Amino acid sequence: MTPETESAFAAIRAEFGKDSIDRVEQMLAAGRRERHPLQKAAKWVMPGISPTPWHDPYAYAELASLVRALEADHRAVKKEFGSAWADRRAVFSDYEHYLTRQRDWQALYLFREGRLVEESAAVVPAAHRVLKEFAVDTGILCPLLECHFSTLLPGAVIEPHCDLWNFSINLHLAVDIPDGCSITVAGETRSWEEGKCLLFDYSFEHEARNEGSAPRTCLLIDLWHPETTLPERRALETVVHEVRRLMRTE
Q: How many CA atoms lie within 13 A of 214 on its CB side?
């Protein structure tokens, strides 16, 4: 805890109550608490969040409007993505996963580094509109992370790993799904159904693969876990921004 973090936490407690960010402070306390074996590689696991790998995308009122909008606009999203992939390949980049560049994993970003990527509005307007209206403007997008079209080329494998924490959750809209593609979370393997969403807690070990003959594309959106509160989200933003600031100055 730095003086800047302590000051921000004091302001949050003054506004929302002295117990409002207890779970965040417990997470940051020295020593690792008990956690699910398949979450052990995650950096932070906030207590009190259900240790559930797979979630029903429609189970949370906070997220349901976004899920409905994405699925309703799937055809338009798929069409504009296909045009971009065919004619504007320069807007895609190799995905950097924990500083490792993976050339058979291509990304087109809609939200990155705390802001909407405005250039993508002209390339994938339907997806950009839905993201802004139903995730950014509503505050359910986790601004600490990102949103991007994720394209796995044939033969691509994302090796088993845990992401950094459990206080955000990953939503996938299945945009273009050939045969032979699957994702495994906490030992349970599923496939994407084109035009539908999957939702999972990526602090659990997970992996993905494309064993088909065509690219697999999903729209990935990092959302606040619906079991977190507004004061907790403010505190978590403070913590992560401070960690990143300190890493830049070392």
A: 8
172 with 192: CB under 8 angstroms? yes
CA distance 185 to 160: 9
Give the DSSP letter of residue 21: T
Tell which residue, 147, 162, 144, 152, has the closest CA to residue 206.
Answer: 162
Q: How far apart are CA 14 and CA 50, in angstroms?
A: 27
Residue pointed to by tokens 């999957």: 198
**Number of neighbours of residue 82 by Cβ within 10 angstroms:** 13
More confident position, 29 or 61: 61
* 82's tokens: 């296909």
Over 222-243, what HEC string results? EEECCCCCHHHHHHHHHHHHHH
Region 133-153: mean pLDDT is: 97
Residue located via tokens 């800047």: 4
Strand partners, 174: 218
Tens digit of each residue's pLDDT (9 = 90 or more) over 205-245: 999 999 999 999 999 999 999 999 999 999 999 999 999 88
